[in-house]
Specification:
This protein has 303 residues and is α/β, with parallel strands linked by helices. Helices cover 39% and strands 21% of the residues. It has two domains: 7-225, 4-Layer Sandwich (Metallo-beta-lactamase, Chain A), CATH 3.60.15.10; 229-302, Arc Repressor Mutant, subunit A. The longest helix has 20 residues, at 228-247. It binds zinc ion. Residues 65, 67, 142-143, 161, 169 line the site of zinc ion. This is Glyoxylase, beta-lactamase superfamily II. It comes from Polynucleobacter kasalickyi. Residues 16-203 form the Metallo-beta-lactamase domain.
Amino acid sequence: MPLPSNLQVIERGWLSANQVYLWSDNFLDVIDSGFCTHQSQTIELLNLKMQVLTDRTPRFLINTHLHSDHCGGNAALINDFNFKLLVPSAEFDAVQDWNEPLLGFSELGQPCPVFSAFGTYQPNTVITLGNLDWEIHQAPGHEDQAQLLFNPEYKILISGDALWEKGFGALFPNNEGVPNIDGAFATLELIAEIEPNIVIPGHGSIFNDVSQALIFAHDRLAYLRKNPDRNLIHVVNVLLKFKLLEWQQCSQEIALDWFKNTPMLQKIAELLNQPIHDLFQQSLNALVKSNAIKIRMQTLFNA
Ligand SMILES: [Zn+2]
């Protein structure tokens, strides 16, 4: 089934999450806003759309969840287009107070320009974006306050990082050092129950073979549950690769300095009972081996 004509997916990449534009005769709504270093591109893309969609007023900006690659363009979009930002209801106070420990950007060693919300959207309600109705479902696991948006008419799921074609977003250990694997399983079950025909993921292309994606994700989760250390090492690799996506290149010394000063990485080194320098070296080796980065003359390059 094709996508409805008043919906457009902007496939961005792995540093900036995908965006969705939804419009009616009067309004344009946007889901997610990318990473902050891409904000001029985020604005340019929207300006291009606004040239086609004359007479529409920018209305709601929604975040599937508050990770820096999904909400890093919020401040710019609110400033330039006057969007009214709606965040998952449980995150509203943390956003308004800019409560860093709760929002967790610096815990992951990532920047995110300060923004404030206009209001919230709630799980187990329906919200109209563009000219389509979307059911809101809580999607714990990768981010416990993340929300899925599901349109029953076209059976479209906007999954954020809860389900990709091959996997899902990293499962970060909480303050007790435990990732929410049960939550991630429950989210997969929920997706299986609502039976989407089309998934618009937070990263990667739109896909239709939802049962295959669910099987893949289920197997991966089962593997991570059995191998908790593998999960922690995966989180480390994801964070270091993401930093290289942001910086593109940097000296090994600066990367190590960032690594040592990132609370999530300190926590994981402790959980694995490893000196943080060794963990850094191990992650570098893994990323070089998988061709995710290259090292030349003590300089790291994104690959
Ligand atoms: Zn995420």
